[in-house]
Amino acid sequence: MSKLLMNLRNVPDDEADDVRAMLDAQRIAFYETRPSMWGVSAGGIWVTEDAVFADARRAMDDYQQQRAARARAEYAAAKRAGTAATFITLLRADPVRVVMSVLGILFALGLVTVPYFLLRG
């Protein structure tokens, strides 16, 4: 029976391509399901044979550790270079989005606190 190796929800294309290439390189048989039309299913990469799923899982864990280390190194380099995204750079780049996000957060906090004030008195 096939087992899900990787859910493709919010997975960048380059990461999914890397996983496909890794599975091909290790000669692990897999297939891919596409996202559903209505967004119920995000799709996934499935290993077809139970016997090799543990090997695929180990390879996936190694890949994710390498990718995380690479992302941390890139972020550290961007911080040292002063090009890493900060709140101020986001505010300068897209002030409307930042202000709307802050207003949305404040509105949500207000909705959460309304019952407290209504029931307190």
UniProtKB/TrEMBL annotation:
InterPro entries per record: DUF6164
Species whose genome carries this gene: Rhodanobacter glycinis
Record keywords: Membrane, Transmembrane, Transmembrane helix
Transmembrane annotation, as ranges: 98-119
Name of the protein described by the UniProt record: Transmembrane protein
Domain of life: Bacteria
